[in-house]
Every structure is written in structure tokens, then in C-alpha cells.
Specification:
The protein is of the alpha/beta class and 202 residues long. It is built from 4 helices and 11 strands; from the N terminus they run E-E-E-E-H-E-E-E-E-H-E-E-E-H-H.
């Protein structure tokens, strides 16, 4: 199942071969029976917390129909673990996970390592595994944009001294134990909450 976070709301995409849940959604849409290009016009995603389910046979086709008016951007980042502590950043007054846009011809895992090094000032974190992928929308330079984020779990054994990248509006970077993740959860984005759930067993 894929999820797209739109402000306070979420659209989930479910393969038609899977069992469709009967509860928990404001609307369940079968991609064969609905004009998907108009789906986003049906709800005020900012003012209310809407949860939609779109059932698909061809994810890429259906996804592009729903978000036809959006520009696509690829990004990657991850949660770094060192001595049972985990690295998080604060940006624009919200807790976040270091991440950033892929450069030309760059693979997601390469971008994740580079962005973490740049945004936190550490060197040499190594990929443990892919946690998962999320999507979220926002406005970038006046253009509607949907960002696909690859999220990784990374290990690190170097110095825990950090240097937040101020030019990226990062005000602090901290190492905390998993028992303290409630600090992050109390002031972060829904998409980051999703990544934290992905990393619960790590």
C-alpha cells in the first residue's frame, strides 16, 4: 500500500488483488469507476482531515491520473543510529529526518548518505536497509509538487558531534534514544510519523 500525505489528509493506494478494508475511509474509489483526474477537487484537504482509499490495477497509471497537475520530485534520507541513539533535526520549528533532493544520475541510497552528511555534519554513515517510501505534496516556488522520499536505516560509528546546516534552515540536530521518540512525535509531520512507524523494530 502506498500513501500520499496532503497537508492534514492522506490518500492510500491499494492493489486490487488485496482485500479492501470496509472501514476507516471517507471514500473508497475504484479506479475503473471514477474520473481520477478530478479526485483532488472533491475535498478540502487543508481544512479537514480526509482519508481516501484508491484501488488500482496499475499503480503508475492511476497515480499519474490523480496527480496530473503536480510536478514530481525525488528525494532520500534516513534515520541514523549510533550507540542506540538516533539522529533527528529541527527545521522550521518542526522535528524532521535529514533528507534532500536527488542530484542528477544519483541513486536514492547515495543521496540519503550525502544529505545526512551535509545537513548534520557527520561523515560516513552506512546503509543498513531501506525502511520504505512515502509521498507528500507541497508548493515549491508556486508550483504544486509531489515528492517521493526513499527512507533508509543507517548505522554510524564516528564522532557524535553534529553541525546543523543553517543554510537549509536546520536549527538543531540531536541524538536521542528510542524511548525519547515521543519528543519527535509530538511536533512533526504525518509523513515523518509514518517513517517512525516503519522504524519501530530497528
Amino acid at each position: 500500500m502506498y500513501k500520499v500525505f496532503i497537508d492534514n489528509s492522506v490518500i492510500q493506494f491499494l492493489d486490487s488483488s488485496e482485500e479492501v478494508p470496509l472501514k476507516g475511509y471517507d471514500l473508497v474509489v475504484n479506479s475503473f469507476q471514477f474520473e481520477l483526474s478530478k479526485l483532488l477537487d472533491q475535498f478540502d484537504f487543508i481544512a479537514s482531515k480526509v482519508c481516501l482509499l484508491v484501488v488500482y490495477d496499475d499503480f503508475e497509471l492511476v497515480f499519474n491520473q490523480v496527480f496530473h497537475a503536480y510536478e514530481f520530485m525525488d528525494a532520500a534520507g534516513g534515520i541514523v543510529k549510533c550507540n542506540q541513539r538516533y539522529l533527528f533535526i529541527e527545521r522550521h520549528g518542526m522535528w524532521d529526518i535529514p533528507k534532500g533532493k536527488l542530484d542528477a544520475n544519483e541513486q536514492p541510497w547515495e543521496a540519503a548518505v550525502r544529505e545526512i552528511e551535509e545537513e548534520c555534519g557527520i561523515q560516513g554513515p552506512t546503509i543498513d536497509r531501506l525502511l520504505g517510501v512515502t509521498f507528500h505534496t507541497y508548493s515549491y516556488m508556486g508550483r504544486l509538487t509531489i515528492k517521493k522520499n526513499w527512507w533508509y536505516a543507517l548505522n554510524y560509528s564516528g564522532s557524535m558531534e553534529v553541525f546543523p546546516q543553517e543554510e537549509e534552515s536546520i536549527t538543531q540536530a540531536i541524538w536521542i534514544e528510542k524511548s525519547e521518540w515521543n519528543l519527535i512525535q509530538s511536533n512533526t509531520y504525518d509523513s515523518i510519523q509514518e517513517v517512525l512507524r516503519m522504524a519501530e523494530e530497528w
